[in-house]
Write a structure and sequence with these properties.
By secondary structure, the chain is of the alpha+beta class. It has one domain: Alpha-Beta Plaits, CATH 3.30.70.120. Helices cover 22% and strands 37% of the residues. The chain has a 4-stranded antiparallel β-sheet with strand order 2-5-1-6, covered by helices on one side. It has a two-stranded antiparallel ribbon with strand order 3-4. Strand 3 and strand 4 form a beta hairpin.
């Protein structure tokens, strides 16, 4: 199994959710996060004073899928989250050794 984490722009969340539904993903965890990458934030004005916004609002999506569809899920996220501008985000793929459904004690891929 693979855990796929994607850090994306918040306005792309619905597009990514729809793409994951089409790719066969049955559940996900979404967290509002802040961070920065190469764009290093930007300058904004508030009441005539400039201030530096370093941490940009992002959304982190986490899904666990079986190995057979992991590549398709990564491509679905990449395509849906891509706007072509800086700060589109990152996708991370990690191995998952075990998963356990708490309610039924199902294990492995059956728990996902």
């Amino acid at each position: 199994m693979k855990k796929i984490e994607a850090i994306i722009k918040p306005h792309k969340l619905d597009d990514v959710k729809d793409a994951l539904d089409k790719a066969g993903v049955h559940g996900m965890t979404v967290t509002e996060v802040k961070g920065y990458g190469r764009q290093k934030g930007h300058v904004e004005m508030y009441r005539g004073a400039e201030y530096q916004v370093v941490f940009k609002a992002k959304v982190k999506i986490e899904v666990v899928v079986n190995d057979a569809i992991a590549a398709a899920v990564v491509e679905a996220v990449r395509t849906a989250a891509n706007s072509g501008s800086i700060g589109d985000g990152k996708i991370f793929v990690m191995n998952v050794e075990e998963a356990v459904r708490i309610r039924t004690n199902e294990r492995g891929e059956a728990a996902v």
